[in-house]
Amino acid sequence: MRRSPSRRALRTAAAVTAAGALLAACSGAGGGSGSSGGDSINVLMVNNPQMTQLQRLTADHFTKDTGIKVNFTVLPENEVRDKISQDFANQAGQYDVATISNYETSIYARNGWLHELDPYLRDDADYDVQDILTPIQLSLTGEDGKLYAQPFYGESSFLMYRTDVFEEHGLTMPEQPTWTEVAELAAEVDAAEDGMKGICLRGLPGWGEVIAPLTSVVNTFGGTWFTEDWEAQLDSPEFTEATQFYVDLVREHGQSGAAQSGYAECLNNMVQGNTAMWYDATAGAGSLEADDSPVAGNIGYVPAPVEQTASSGWLYTWAWGIQASSNKADTAWEFISWASSKEYEELVGETLGWSNVPAGKRTSTYENPDYQEEAAAFYQVTHDAIAAADPVNPGVQPRPVPGIQFVTIPEFADLGTKVSQEISSAIAGRQSVEDALAKSQSLADAVAEEYRNR
């Protein structure tokens, strides 16, 4: 049966010109839905496995039940970020809904690029907004206290490792490993199996690629991007030590082609048995434990490695936001309400297996016996990692703004991307870590100066 969404009048925010140059992006399928009629919407989303599963399920379930056709444009992470920022900043209206993260949400909301969702959440009792995990919900709240996005899945980060390989070679993974211990284990297990490397770590340029795990390492090593007084710290001893450690670890015991390896490449390496350990998003566990995964049942999961902090996992969500200029907000909410619902999780669990459920967002998921049984290897570690994530105090010193694996300012997308290119170059052996961070410090200081002068 078709849902009956709120009939509140559409509020269109004024278009805001994006600060700085936006990268050109590939054009997607569909277009102009913001000004066209009919029960159809255009959705722009990242090409992560759980998103492509949603794409496959939509026509036979959501469209069949509601009559609403969904035109998907699916792109890799870096490309989709550029295209979303371009379309939403210009309020072009080509896409009604897009996958945005907890980094973009508050920034886009402040600029008037997103629809407020609170009225829909109040009127849609079936959605059960109270079931959404508190850290995730807070991360999608604007500065005005209103909600502007709803999660498709949430994640933190943890360390994944091959239990069968560790057992065969007499290695023991600590319940809460330090990065020092992880490096020692990587050296022990590197080449222990034919064609297997010790660890896989992201090296691909992008603020959402190599910068995400690297910054979590920086935090626990005692570093930070900026002090609370907006002093750039990328060439500080702590930031330098953490970055040198990360680069050395992946160069000495990591995957081949590390400078071009992101989340997708490391996931594939782990599934194909090419690496013994992988530090990355908790969302990867579902793919590792899927029915068709060659390594299912042979993966162990422990909290993100630490050094000076009690925990170091990040907090992230891919969420659904409605473009303010869309004149199909009610229809867009019907899609979001379904795609982030308990109903959709049940559908995935029953048709694709419970380990494939886009988890990390609902309390009820972690209380579901079917999910607990199939995700027994990782569900509790994932839940605990999300609950322990602290965006306000992720390190050992105060920060000027919240953020664990990113800094929640508009300039960070550009800054993080530029710094990532320097780090990736160091991973590729084209320059030293010291040189990479010297250039990065100059970039960060230019941003910090703007905030110091405000």
UniProtKB/TrEMBL annotation:
Keywords: Signal. It holds the Pfam family SBP_bac_1. The keyword Hydrolase does not apply. It comes from Streptomyces cheonanensis. This is Sugar ABC transporter substrate-binding protein. Residues 1-24 form the signal peptide. CDD domains: PBP2_TMBP_like (cd13585).
